[in-house]
Specification:
elongated; 5-stranded mixed β-sheet; 5 strands; alpha/beta; 11 helices
Length: 286
């Protein structure tokens, strides 16, 4: 047991010092390694190689729970504690940055829709409840604004639009894309904050044309649209904050790839049992 402890911690502490503290000889430890203790070390090296592959596949955003799930699906027998220890020893950690702060402009005199969700952020089937929000991304050309529409059933981004102006037209384009892709049944609910873009006549008209019900967050409650804001937090802390976009076009290309190729199709979502939104929809459909 003592030798195994030394083997686990040798990258953090000197072997000689640990042997002295634990009351064992260095020669005894190295004999243990030579006679068979090295088998575990070699197994850990092989496992570490697979961890690095999973970490890279997850765009360096996965911690030990998602990496463990990913490796088990690929046929590797491993426990999360072992994976977490190897990641810690080798300096492998989920890439995150500063906390994301969402903002909205709700100072207007436009009509406000009732709150139909009341923080119930679940749906029993696809395309029953969508949530929408707007965020911004800095480029050297100026701000790029991103509007998204997310399905609460699978957490999939079903519609999005980007532009250099934060207008009602931006959120209408995101909505229209979602409707075109998903073709929802009448009386779908679309929930958002009280921003002027969502309260505008143009957006409410677009909802009416598609037989969609509108819902809005309670006044001054940032948690009433938490799922939409959570996606922006994920996008920014896993991708945007680590990039330097020279142009809006560069940012648009990168965000498109993150949403469509990674987030929707590949990224493991803890709310969905550590599978991607696409895999979740496919599993439920089957």
């Amino acid at each position: 047991m003592k030798y195994e402890f030394i083997g686990r911690e040798r990258s953090c502490h000197p072997v000689a010092k640990m042997c002295l503290v634990l009351g064992v000889s260095r020669s005894g430890y190295y004999a243990h390694v030579k006679q068979g203790g090295g088998i575990r070390s070699k197994a850990n090296e092989r496992l570490l190689e697979e961890i690095r592959k999973s970490y890279k596949t997850g765009r360096v955003a996965y911690g030990s729970p998602r990496i463990t799930t990913d490796m088990r699906e690929r046929g590797h027998v491993c426990g999360e504690n072992r994976v977490a220890r190897l990641m810690r020893i080798n300096g492998i950690a989920a890439r995150t940055k500063r906390r994301f702060k969402a903002t909205t402009n709700s100072r207007h005199c436009l009509p406000v829709a009732p709150n139909l969700l009341k923080k119930r952020f679940t749906a029993e089937r696809p395309d029953k409840i969508w949530v929408s929000d707007i965020t911004y991304v800095w480029t050297y050309e100026g701000w790029l604004y991103l509007a998204t529409v997310l399905d609460l059933f699978s957490r999939r981004i079903v519609g999005w639009a980007m532009g250099d102006r934060i207008t009602s037209e931006l959120v209408i384009r995101a909505l229209n894309q979602a409707v075109w892709k998903r073709k929802p049944a009448p009386e779908l609910i679309v929930h958002s904050d009280r921003g002027s873009q969502y309260a505008s006549d143009a957006f409410r008209g677009a909802l009416s044309r598609h037989d969609i019900l509108q819902s809005m967050s309670a006044k001054g409650d940032c948690y009433d649209n938490a799922v939409a804001e959570s996606f922006f937090h994920t996008l920014k802390t896993e991708y945007v904050y680590f990039e330097r976009f020279k142009t809006r076009a560069q940012a648009q290309s990168g965000i498109f790839e993150y949403i469509e190729a990674f987030y929707n199709r590949t990224r493991r979502h803890s709310t969905l049992g550590n599978i991607s939104p696409q895999a979740f929809e496919q599993a439920k459909a089957a």
